[in-house]
Amino acid sequence: MSPEVFVEILREAMLVVIMLVTAVILPGLIIGLVVAVFQAATSINEQTMSFLPRLVVTLLAVSWLGSWLVQKMMDFFFEIVYRIPMAVG
């Protein structure tokens, strides 16, 4: 039961989390940037104009990528369960 095994599992867990969060956050970030540029160009300072498109795009990203997100989490979980005997023994 070497520490390297646990460090490797932690590293892979962090990579999976970063990949999943990026897939959901990145579209909202891009839309937020587009709306911010539009607001700066037109001097419109409406808060809902900034919030609502990001919310809609984030919800669409979750609905479109939901099965992929769950599949990635399941694959990682099965990999962890598969590694339990190697980590213990």
From TrEMBL:
<feature type="transmembrane region" description="Helical">
    <location>
        <begin position="51"/>
        <end position="70"/>
    </location>
</feature>
<comment type="similarity">
    <text>Belongs to the FliQ/MopD/SpaQ family.</text>
</comment>
<keyword id="KW-0975">Bacterial flagellum</keyword>
<dbReference type="GO" id="GO:0009425">
    <property type="term" value="C:bacterial-type flagellum basal body"/>
</dbReference>
<dbReference type="InterPro" id="IPR006305">
    <property type="entry name" value="FliQ"/>
</dbReference>
<keyword id="KW-0472">Membrane</keyword>
<keyword id="KW-0966">Cell projection</keyword>
<dbReference type="InterPro" id="IPR002191">
    <property type="entry name" value="Bac_export_3"/>
</dbReference>
<dbReference type="GO" id="GO:0044780">
    <property type="term" value="P:bacterial-type flagellum assembly"/>
</dbReference>
<dbReference type="GO" id="GO:0005886">
    <property type="term" value="C:plasma membrane"/>
</dbReference>
<dbReference type="GO" id="GO:0009306">
    <property type="term" value="P:protein secretion"/>
</dbReference>
<keyword id="KW-0969">Cilium</keyword>
<keyword id="KW-1003">Cell membrane</keyword>
<feature type="transmembrane region" description="Helical">
    <location>
        <begin position="12"/>
        <end position="39"/>
    </location>
</feature>
<dbReference type="Pfam" id="PF01313">
    <property type="entry name" value="Bac_export_3"/>
</dbReference>
<protein>
    <recommendedName>
        <fullName>Flagellar biosynthetic protein FliQ</fullName>
    </recommendedName>
</protein>
<comment type="function">
    <text>Role in flagellar biosynthesis.</text>
</comment>
<keyword id="KW-0812">Transmembrane</keyword>
<keyword id="KW-1133">Transmembrane helix</keyword>
<keyword id="KW-0282">Flagellum</keyword>
